[in-house]
Amino acid sequence: MSDVASTNAGNQGNGSTGPVLAADGTPLKKSLNRALRMQKMRALMLIAPLLIFVLVTFIAPIVDMLFRSVENQIVSETMPRTVVALQNWDEAGDEPPGEDVYEAAYYDLFIAAERKLHTRLGTRLNYELTGVSSLFRKSGRGLDDIGEVYQDQFEDLDGFWKKGENWAELMGSDSWVAAAKDWDTKSGTEQPRFEMRDGIADTLPKTSEAYQAFAQFVQVEEQDKLYKEDPWSMVYLALHADLKGGADVSGYNGPGATELAAAAAAAPGFDTVGFKDGFLAIEKDWADLDVWRTIKLYSPSYTPGYFLNAVDLEKSYEGVQARPDNEQIYMKLFGRTLFMSLVITFSCILLGYPVAWILANLPTRTANLLMILVLLPFWTSLLVRTSAWKVMLQQQGVINDVLVWLGLVADDARLVMINNQFGTIVAMTHILLPFMILPLYSVMQTIPPSYMRAAKSLGAKDWTAFWRVYFPQSVPGIGAGSILVFILSIGYYITPEIVGGTTGVFISNRIAYHISSSLNWGLAAALGTILLVVVLGLYWAYDKIVGIDNVKLGG
To answer: Is the pTM of this model over 0.85?
Structure first.
């Protein structure tokens, strides 16, 4: 007898209540839990590839879509100074923002224009107010004119201000200047990051901030040598603002101290340009209150604006309100999509049920041959099938020609069956019909024929036997086919795009338009999210009314 067995036997003989031990001497419960954990880990490792695939291809895109539908960080990140300055402006009043807002907008837009971000910002705001995109593009080209007024005067005052090296030594620390002089773009080493000279930010705060932004752009985005780079005209404007504002430069004794003192004495006599006047000289629309209201409304990092637009509402300084009648299209598209998807689903039930019944009640060999005809559309391109319907349904198409030949339709009164809802319903019913037939056929095959014979033997007529015995058993197949067809049809966009025209397109066509053409991904994400919620809501209602457990694909 083994030692473990002897120990267990001894424990029992002594009346001990100690734990039962495994063969390796560990408590049996602990050993079983460890084995169970290992089994679960192995099972998890087996499904890990599928789990990762689902997370990457399904869950992650949905999460990204939900985020894009509310994300609005481009305004606050591109115009941070303007967003802060606009907080004190009353957008409900009749007066445009003050000079401080225009000054903040100048610095923000100048940097954004250098980084080529002003057009993206204009495009984003153009979704809310037409014309803003062109306003931002034009302003990005014209902001240099404001700063050059000061740049020319500084350079005329002293040639010191013309050279980038002088600016670098004035603004940068001694250690950085020494390292920056020796660095070369061909050296293969990283350029030493710009370091501000001690105390210069206190003496020239606006200049330091502007030069810091310039230095970061040159080193990080352009990856050029900062030491020899001439500063932006915005830096000259900031220097004038500091000097005219009473900056005390008497305590500065570093490089360029003499030139800086002379500039401080001359700056109050410079010709100046007001920020507001400079903006209005570029474009008169900068006096439009709606432009500033739109910037302020969409300055938060997250916004419900996309969802409001998706349900034909809009966000304004007065609150949420309905869009003008000529701009209300999305609720109509949602309603049309749901209505036509339901019509297509019922059409597939009406056409598919008899076909599935015939296939289920024919001999197996014959049913298999006919099933090939049902599956044949799957072997043909969706684009080809849709284009074929376009050819058949047009006024000079096959169907109209046959109707004219039969005398049912006059040649000058041919039916309009394309580029409308009828064409979309016909084409999509044909395309989605196999998805209804296959679940129905699978369920009907499991219904024993003896049930119908038993009902008839008890006196039931054919229709009564079918309706009271056969049909209830086929309902799970109807449910499965309906879910497949409805969910597929509600998200279709290729077929409605080709045969739907202006009255037969779905909401999915608008989503595709915003993704590929208008590039309004936020609105597309909001529309997609609403569509997803609608589908989930209908799925929940179906489960409550019919019961998802009653849906079967056979078996």
So the answer is: no
